[in-house]
Amino acid sequence: MSFPILSLLIFLPILGGIALLGVSNKKDVGSVKVMALMISILELLLTLPLLFAFDKTTPAMQFVERHDWIKIFNIEYYLGVDGIAILFIPLSALITILCILVSWKSIQTKVKEFFVAMLLLEGAMIGVFCSVDFFLFYIFWEAMLIPMFLLIGVWGGPNRIYAATKFFLYTLVGSLLMLVGIITLYIKGGNTFDILALAQLDLPVGTQLILFWAFFAAFAVKVPMWPVHTWLPDAHTEAPAAGSVVLAGILIKMGAYGFLRFSMPILPEATSAMMMPMIVLSLIGIVYGGIVCLAQTDLKRLIAYSSVSHMGFITLGIFALNTQSVEGGILQMINHGVVTGALFLGIGMVYERTHTRKICDYGGLATNMPVFASFFLLFTLAAVGLPGTNGFVGELLILLGSFLTRPWVALIAASGLIIGAWYMLWLYQRIFFNPVNSKWDTIKELELREIVTLMPMVILIFWIGLFPNSLLSYMHVSVSHLLEQVTSNPDGVASGVQLAVDHALDAAIQGAHHVQHVSH
Predict the structure, then answer these.
(1) Would you give the DSSP letter of residue 489?
(2) What is d(CA 445, CA 221) in angstroms, rounded to the nearest whole number?
(3) What are the sequence ranges of the domains in the chain?
(4) Per-residue pLDDT tens digits for 168-212
(5) SS3 468
(6) How far is residue 273's CA from residue 502's CA, in Å, rounded to a whole number?
(7) How far is CA 146 from CA 125, 183, 315, in A?
(8) SS3 for 382?
């Protein structure tokens, strides 16, 4: 396609947000909301040609736009998407629409500025997924920080300044280390920011390892992986409902996307060498996040810590380095955005009525809000991976791929599913089936606007659960090509460096068993 569809998708919401600044905040609040909603709906419709015209038989970048930008530094305005990035663009557009709908009544102050921030954030997010020039990617990566910081800091809860500052500092420090890595690659690559050209470099293993950890600083914080996850519960707790939805639905996926787009193809030997350390960190996140969920008394903090656990599954899938696991990881990125986004939408709707997030304040909501209880039950079952829902497919692929890597890895990861079912079903029982709290005798059922907001998530949960290949088919060729860059074949045979690390780990385990035997 010669039409610059990617540029249109990036700049339509940005220019729309700028246009909204000219609307009177006091007299035309309704107009601001309608205009923001129309822009976001148009954005979603414009993503459909990408899906229909996308060629699933090639790993090459498609819908490419390439122009000189800053010639003195060889920086280009270079856009394109492949099978790894394509699905996140319509997901970003859909989640923006739902964020606008869920905020229709709940945002009462600085309404115009809120919807402007949402549209600017949407444009920056799509820019991240479309960038093929590293410098351009970094611009969009940093641009996301500003509207997200404002969403938490201006429209958040009582401790919003603390949460927003913590979010900003964590992300900024990681991003600065990534910038050092980008500059190093620029010099080593002959003064180019072209991601595809950088993937052809033959860097020494030592250099790759240093760069891997520089990128890890940015991507692991954004995921977030254990132990750099502590900003996420605070950000989720204090953010408005829309902020939590976009944070869980899209922003934290960008860390995992960074590993796929940059660390794996550009630093293949380092990726193979760091396979087991990354798997161990992922397993810790899965189990730790689940156990901490059991101790939570706040609705949003519980779902926030569940994200730490679920994102552990995603990074586990990515670094198991075989076709099943990587495709499962990418699919689970989509699934987590849908399910956790839906849970935060539901929590935002009930909080708008009760103004409390304490789990102990609830009870018996199924009696007075049966429609809402039905929606939340579906989201809960999808979160625990019930067969027939989207959560099941992604987790199954990740566990299968992990088993091919190391059977004990799949066993530990599977324990996270048991813990997840425990805390999610227990949460549902306390909110909907405990004795009825008399404070909620007059609580109102969901409005039509709220039902319309939740329905797309319901459709996606069943559609992906029953027809997963409709999404997986976009990934097959691109994932195979990616794994060919990292390993000797698309089934994930480890490199010599990785084998050395694995042998050392196996020797350490055998040594520990020998010591234990001698002590007995």
Answers:
(1) S
(2) 38
(3) 292-520
(4) 888 888 889 899 999 999 998 888 899 999 888 888 888 899 999
(5) coil
(6) 9
(7) 12, 23, 26
(8) helix
* Residue 267 token pair: 């630093």
CA-wise closest residue to 274 among 309, 225, 337, 332:
225
Give the 3-state DSSP-derived string for 97-127, with helices as H, strands as E and coil as C. Answer: HHHHHHCCCCCCCCHHHHHHHHHHHHHHHHH
> For residue 82, how many other CB atoms are within 10 A of its CB?
22
The SS3 assignment for 321 reads coil
CB 323 within 8 A of CB 490: yes
Instruction: Give CA torsion, residues 235, 238, 243, 247, to 10 deg.
Output: 20
Report pLDDT digits (tens) over 472-496: 999 999 999 998 888 753 444 344 4
- Please give the span between the terminal C-alpha atoms of the chain, in angstroms, as a whole number: 70
Rounded to two decimals, the pTM is 0.87
Pull the structure tokens for residue 472.
Answer: 């997986």
Cβ atoms of residues 39 and 9 within 8 Å: no
CA atoms of 495 and 150, how far apart (whole Å): 45
The kind and range of the H/E element at 160 are helix 160-188
Residue 279 has phi, psi (to 5 degrees) of -65, -40
**Rounded alpha-carbon distances, angstroms, from residue 507 to 406, 495, 500, 501:** 15, 18, 10, 10
- The token pair that represents 375 in the structure block: 């929606």
188 touches 199 (CB < 8 A) = no
Sign of CA dihedral 450, 456, 460, 462: positive
* Residue pair 69/212 in contact by the 8 Å Cβ criterion: no
Rg (CA), the chain: 23
State the helix-helix crossing angle for 5-20 and 88-102, rounded to 10 degrees.
20
Dist. CA 512–CA 517, nearest whole Å: 9
- The CA-atom distances, in angstroms, between 126 and each of 3, 68, 429 are 17, 21, 38
Structure tokens at 496: 């010599």
What are the residues facing 131 on neighbouring strands?
79
